[in-house]
Design goal:
The strands form 2 sheets. This protein has a 10-stranded mixed β-sheet. The protein has a 3-stranded antiparallel β-sheet with strand order 1-2-3, with no helix packed on it. Strand 4, helix 1 and strand 5 form a beta-alpha-beta unit. It has one domain: Aldolase class I (TIM Barrel), CATH 3.20.20.70. The protein has 314 residues and is α/β, with parallel strands linked by helices. The protein is 26% helix and 21% strand.
Length: 314
Amino acid sequence: MKNFTNNHQADHWKLRGGPAGLHVFNRATGLNILDDEISVPVALWSRAPRNVSIALTNRCDLACVHCFAPKSRDALPFDTITRWLCELDANGTLGVGFGGGEPTLYPRFAELCQHAARETTLSVSFTTHGHHIDHAMADSLHGNVHFIRVSMDGVNGTYESIRRRSFEALRGRLKVIQGISQFGVNVVVNERTIGDLDEVAEVAADSGAAELLLLPQERTHTVSAIAAATMRELQCWVDGYGGPLKLCINEAHAEGFPTCDPLVAEHGLRAYAHIDATGAVKPTSYHATGIAVGEGGVLEALDLLAGDVTEDRP
């Protein structure tokens, strides 16, 4: 019987078997199809998480107070990353998201995206503050990235007080990013940014964004988690939003929001994992500790992590 995850002959389509059924994914269009009437034998369930994020480096030239990334210069070796990508691809991962730190500061960033797009069937995305994406970088990324997430915490003075960068400069970068691939805007929602959501959504839509990802502030060593009152404001804002953008929210805060998850049977490490810039695999990027990926590869580390998952967020 054919293994659902071995599909390198397909141009854009990929099959993934799991407890929810047969998942068909097209990385070029982002189309997902789930046939939940097909019962996939357990032996053919994909072993790797559906999506994996990789922090290429902890380096960043911004100092946002809510940032959870360690302030270090750790970075992953290029050859190690490409080996992991091959392993994840062969075992059913559909998409990889590069982050950091700021991934565009990774020395071979464009080359890495090119490798992932051409040598694997993975969907390639990355999260960025956007300020380093000029026309030269855009040309090198075009055709090698399927989605980009741009961080925009508020607008105008709010944004500039948090990011210490020009908001108008960011708007200029969004025009460049639009020529690379589809993109979305991320916003960390807290007491400072909640009042800017209407304008954030308007700017994102006017710039050609496809979605707005809402990220209620997580507790870190420097900030507290989003206040309950602010969370209620966010729920009211979502209920009243009538604009063109698709709204998304991270899984940790999805309760109480009008979300749809057809893959509820595929959760935890089966759905998502994060590899930090030191090479440790974690349930999420917010977890303080994880399991180092050794010679046995990512899947071995995931098996160890599955038996040792704790709520150890900072």
